Amino acid sequence: MNLAEAARIAARGLRTNKLRSVLTMLGIIIGVAAVIVLVAFGNGLQRFVADAFGPLANQIQITKTQGAISGNRAARDLTDADVDALSDRSRAPAIGSVTPSVNGSALLQVVGDGQYRSSILGTQADYLDVANRELVVGSFFDDQQARNKAKVVVLGPNPVATLFGGQAGEALGKDVRVGRTTFRVIGVLKGNGQQDDVAVMPLGAARSYLLGGGDVVDSITVRAASTDVVPQAVQQASAILDQRHQIRDPGERDFTVTALQSLLDQSSQVLSFVTIFVAAVAGISLIVGSIGVANIMLVTVTERTREIGIRKAIGARRRAILQQFLIESMILTGVGGVLGILLGIGLSVTAGIVLPQLVTDFPAPSVSVGSVVLAFTVSLLIGLVAGGYPANRAARMRPIDALRHQ
Amino acid sequence: MIELEHVSKVYRTGDIALRALDDVSLRIDDGDLVAIMGPSGSGKSTMMNILGCLDVPSSGVYRLDGTDVGGLSDNRLADIRNRKIGFVFQSFNLLPRTSAIRNVELPMVYAGTKDRRTRARRALARVGLAERANHQPNELSGGQQQRVAVARALVTDPTMILADEPTGNLDTASTVDVMNLFVELNEAGRTIVLITHEPEVAEFASRVVTLRDGHIVGDERR
Predict the structure, then answer these.
(1) Are residues A194 and A331 in the same domain?
(2) Which end of chain B has less Cβ packing within 10 Å, N or C?
(3) Which of A12, A306, A314 sits opposite B110 (nearest CB)?
């Protein structure tokens, strides 16, 4: 007897007990669908994070170490000279751009329209690129304005909300007093939820009119020439600053070099752990489903003892009986697996359409091919394992005993 | 040709040994219609199990068509049942919810025979049920079900048709019906062994072997 024949017999066996077969399959369907949907949600979240922060992946933040450092020395400030050294392409070929910035806070005032205390960021013309931000209206200051310490400012959404009633167009071109100096608003930033309480201006202007501080910079954002050379860029930046700050032991550094990539890697690793964990929880329902399959197969074999006896008396070999029941349970779990995959994909796609309409920026779930292949393989394996014992029991029955069974 | 030589079958439960067949020798020629008779407990069922290769003797030799069945594996026994023996049981033993024609095809499925449909149809026609081919067992009378079972038994062209109380569940009319079928088949050259305790059934046989307490106590040709 060949496999096709055994499959036909098994399919006929399942059809005679349709309701039972469908209910048993339901356990597998729900388990598989749950795994696929939850993995899809996890993937969606990972993709969301990668899309949001991916452009920052080649960034390296350099700041002065806060508080005491080992070796009992005071930490040196980062200065313009450090920035120049880092910008030297011959010493740091892996570094693409260097953007220093200074921070502080100041009172913003519009005549007759109230006031707002905002943080101040003095930086360079490439800030938008470096910070991965966009403008709602207007333009950013250019290199020439930066060099000339032009008294221009780009406002974040929070000061605009207070000073101009949230009307970005209203703010454009207006004069704002920042501290004791009047600046012209040339643009408004789009909110990013993290740094919205800000007024951005040329670094030189911030130093000259507001914060003082000579040649000190608060932080330096270095961008690696590409995401592939981030580690080299970190190394070169550290080496240059070590030399300038006369540091021989890396443990005594008075500055901190942080590659955002490593933070991104960590966060995506955490997310993938969460995804695996959630999928494992869904996998429990798959285990419950497979116990259901094993249970039903045992019932089926007991119920059909007489049938097994007849088949054996008529000349079915052990193997033929084994195949019949194994295939029966694998059809249950295989078809259940396929239906579960379809249901899982359907739910994920539906969630991807509906949820972002209900919750802004909700990350759309993304079904992974891997989870589909895995789910199908696992369901077939479940069929093999859950059907194995009952099928083996059926195959080992002695025909005389099986025939006598009522 | 069917030969039993000094066959014994002993069942053991705990310390008690039950000698169901005790040193039985029997030879059945091809084309014979033999009834094996005896009261319950005489060893009839054991005889049937051994003749049908459902069980093996404790001692002695059973030769079917010259093959010693004694030392064969499970699989070989299954093959012998498939090719050389056609079973007819008291309780019909058709697969439920399965059409008559599929029931008749079943032994050929395990044998891997080709043109099963045609052969099954021919066998059903032989027992007079050609037009009931697509009926399920519960749509057929007892006599009809037993005729389907006979068709299933003869479809593989076996050495022997082995019928265990084939009329035990049938009314008188169906009994005569089924017995006449056996006689017809026998006249066409089939070897048939009937296990029965009913003298009226044994009437149809050309040879009657009587068992009692595991021994052959009578063997007459009519």
Answers:
(1) no
(2) C
(3) A314
- pLDDT for A364: 87
CB pair distance less than 8 Å for B75 and A1: no
Sheet holding B215-221, edge to edge: B85-88, B160-164, B191-196, B33-37, B207-212, B215-221
Q: Are A23 and A84 contained in the same domain?
A: no
Q: What tokens does B36 get?
A: 């094996």
Query: Which residues have C-beta within 8 Å of that of residue B167, sequence separation ≥ 6?
Result: B146, B174, B175, B178, B179, B196, B198, B201
Residue A300 located in a structural domain: yes
For chains A and B, CB pairs below 8 A equal 58
Last residue of a domain, one of A210, A244, A278: A244
Per-residue pLDDT tens digits for B58-117: 999 999 988 899 888 999 999 999 999 999 999 999 998 899 999 999 999 999 888 999
A222 found inside a domain: yes
* Number of folded domains that form chain A: 2
A221, containing H or E segment: strand A219-224
3-state secondary structure A127-166: HHHHHCCCEEEECCCCHHHHHCCCCEEEECHHHHHHHHCC
Shortest Cα–Cα distance, B222 to chain A (Å)? 31
pTM above 0.80, yes or no: no
The secondary structure element, H or E, covering residue A404 is helix A399-404
Mutation pick from B53, B55, B93, B103 vs chain A, by most beta carbons of A within 10 Å, is: B93
Asked if residue A60 belongs to a domain, the reply is no
B104 touches B150 (CB < 8 A): no
Domains of chain B, residue spans: 2-221
Residues 320-379, chain A, touching B (beta carbon < 8 A): 320
- CATH architecture assignment, domain B2-221: 3-Layer(aba) Sandwich (3.40)
Domain that holds residue A100: 77-244
